Amino acid sequence: MKKFTHLLVKEIRELVTKQLIFSLVFTMALFYFIGNVMKSEVKKAIGKQTIAVLDQDGSELSKSLIGTLQMGNYVPKAISAATPEEAIAAVRAGTENVLLVIPQGFGESVSALSPKPIETYAFIRSFSMIGIRRSEVLKGIISAMNSYVSDEYIKKRLPDADPKRLKNPIPIREFVSIQDRRAEVSASAIAGFISTQTMMIPIILMMIIIYASQMVISAIAMEKQNKTLETLLTVPISRTSIVTAKMLASGLVGLLSAVFYMVGYRYFMTGITGDFQAASGVGPIVKELGLSLSGSSLIVLGASLFMAILCALAMATILGVLAEDFRSAQSLIMPVILLVMIPYFLTLFSDPKTLSLPAKVLLMAIPFSHSFLAVQNMFLGEYKNVIFGMLYMAAFFTVLVILAGRIFSSDKVLTMKLRWGKKKVVL
Amino acid sequence: MASVLSVENLKKSYGQLEAVKGVSFEVGHGEIFALIGPNGAGKTTTLRIVATLLTPSGGKVTLQGHDLKTQPEKIREDISYLPEEAGAYRNMKGQDYLKFMAGFYSEDPAKTAEYLKRAEDICGLGPRLKDKVGTYSKGMVRKLLLGRALMTKPAMSILDEPTSGLDVINSLEVREIIRGFAGEGISVLLSSHNMLEIEFLSDRVALIDKGVILDSGTPAGLKEKYKANNLETVFRSALR
Questions:
Q1: What is the mean pLDDT of residues B163-174?
Q2: I want to staple A221 with a disulfide (CB 3.0 to 4.6 A). Which of A323, A348, A365, B190 is the partner?
Q3: Is the pLDDT of residue A266 over 90?
Q4: In the structure, what pLDDT confidence band is assigned to residue A377 with cuts at 50, 70 and 90?
């Protein structure tokens, strides 16, 4: 055991280089910085929006309309200009992104049931997500104005009627049902909330798998390139220990790297989505529907993710043996990436239950699929599928470890190479 | 002389290619036994089999009574192997590399310290041992590896082209070191292209070509047998 620890420490030291630490800290700092910038931009975007208003009418109706905007999330700023062109020039030179021009005679035209058009100008100052979102404020303004004017029409013609009832005569109550649980909420709100809450899991898994696999393959390739593998294979320690130490070290360092990345990434994502989520208010309903993970569910999920990582490491160990040097190791990660990407996209864009049989078989044969589907299955109470997935991954891992152990205990560890030109494994 | 290593009718094939075709020899306690031959003769394959890196296709190898096929772990405790193109971990300091390798042979700190002292004496790198291996010249790496190979006083040291890539002065130093350790009871199995080196170092020599041992004996005996002045002429005559 002491020899194993001795080797494990060496493997970890080989992987945790100054470059790796610098890269991790730099990436986290970058995410932190961008997250902070995004947070302040989002706050601005969802906060009160100042809109420039040129009221050429000055009627009671136009004033009420501006008052309505005030009650919404908008701060109207009156522009002193003789013509719309002058107002446009003034706004262009300023900071507002929207100009509203209420034409002269607007109030009278509405009374005559032939309203003159209100002109809106969106000043797109950047094509960033936040910039475009600001210009979308217009949609809200137009909707608010139409609602106000139509309410006024109805009140005038049918003073006893409730404008809201007339505009939406069929009241709708939306319910979502999951298993035996039910709650009054829109399905899209739940889907949106769940996807933002769980989108991190497959991303974390993907990152750990790719990171750790890359490390195992590179570690073996570097031993070959630096001509240290032959010496290591002749020291008195079992080959299984050599394989396990490499896998475990890569798994630990991969996990550490993923934690660094995810902390930064989470900060970045919170910057974008945090305030929107809080505003949606569906959190308690999600719990009511059982769509939150309990302590035991999180343990099961963690175990499932761990099994997937083990499968990837075992696969990477075998691929690492095929590498001749560090350069060839870079391309050998491709099979692992493909096997991660296929289930990631299939589970992201489709329902595995409705897939064709060949696609379903392919999906289920890839061990990582079971971890990608674990959260979904747990939300739906299908724990049998989660357990089956874990057993499948355990069997997959066992077979690969036995295979890796055999390769390391035989000549193949030194003689097996992948020759891209001839496209065959030469033993 | 008691036999430390016994190789009987050793065979090794890679698919259709027969690299070693029934090689037999023995190496005694404290003896330096050399395999000499051209490239592709089967020297390195034989050495790698004895070092437990390759599995033989046929024949029997025993070291200190342990069978290579059934007890490779036991054999690894008794050998040290220096491959022709060996390297050390470039990010490690020389002394850390030696400490890391010593850790596989002893868990006793006193013993480890003894190994390290011996390795430092053998390699003669002095304060440069505190530098990273990546900054070493080829000769320095070779000396470090030789120190690593001999520090534990293994029953059998397997050295493939021990002076490969070294300049004349370094080569002489390395030969002196090997000779000295044989005197302390370490058996050495080595291979080399350098006939002068073999003549200087070896107690006995096997001439190998195309996977077959053509002849073996002491350098002096072989020279007398083939009426030659040096081993190069002996080898040429044996090939005929």
A1: 83
A2: A323
A3: no
A4: confident
Residue B75 CA to residue B65 CA, distance in Å, equals: 9
Q: If you measure CA to CA, which chain B residue comes closest to A7? A: B100
Q: Choose between A33 and A368: higher pLDDT.
A: A368
CB B4 within 8 A of CB B156: yes
What does pLDDT average to over chain B?
Answer: 90
Cβ neighbours of residue B240 under 8 Å, at least 6 residues apart? none
pLDDT band at A47 (very low <50, low <70, confident <90, very high): confident
Q: A88-94 long-range contacts, Cβ below 8 Å, gap at least 24?
A: A88/A121, A90/A52, A91/A52, A91/A121, A91/A123, A92/A123, A94/A52
Amino acid identity at B85? E
Contact B82, B44 (CB under 8 A): no
CATH domain A47-168 topology = abc type-2 transporter like fold (3.40.1710)
pLDDT of A80-91, one tens digit each? 888 999 999 999
Indicate which of A7, A14, A228 best probes the interface with B, i.e. most B CBs within 10 Å of its own CB.
A228
Which chain A residue lies closest to B85 (C-alpha atoms)?
A227
Query: Which of the two residues, B58 and A296, has the higher pLDDT score?
Result: B58
Please calculate the CA angle B194-B101-B119 and round it to the nearest 5 degrees. Answer: 60
Chain A residues whose CB is inside 8 A of the B54 CB are 411, 414
State whether A14 and B89 contact (CB < 8 Å). Answer: yes
Kindly identify which residue of chain B lies nearest to residue A2, measuring between CA atoms.
B107
Chain A residues whose C-beta sits inside 8 Å of any chain B C-beta: 2-3, 6, 10, 13-14, 17, 226-228, 230-231, 233-238, 410-411, 414-415, 427
Please report the pLDDT score of residue A390 as a whole number.
Answer: 93
The partner residue sitting opposite A411, judged by closest CB among B55, B86, B103, is B55
Could you tell me the residue ranges of all domains in chain B?
A: 3-40+55-215+229-239
B3-40+55-215+229-239 is classed in which CATH architecture? 3-Layer(aba) Sandwich (3.40)
- Whether the per-residue pLDDT at A427 is higher than 60: the answer is no
Q: For residue B17, what is the nearest residue in chain A, using CA coordinates?
A: A427
pLDDT tens-digit map of B113-152 = 999 999 998 888 889 999 999 999 888 898 899 899 989 9
Across the interface, whether the CB atoms of B91 and A14 are under 8 A apart is answered: yes
Nearest to A2 among B73, B107, B145 (CB): B107
Chain region(s) in chain A for CATH 3.40.1710.10: 47-168
Least CB–CB distance from A226: residue in B15, B77, B90: B90
Q: Give the closest of B54, B55, B87 to A227, CB-based.
A: B87
When the pLDDT of each residue in chain A is averaged and rounded to a whole number, the result is 82
What does DSSP say about strands A49-55 and A98-102: parallel, antiparallel, or unpaired?
parallel
Q: How far apart are CA A81 and CA A344, in angstroms?
A: 56
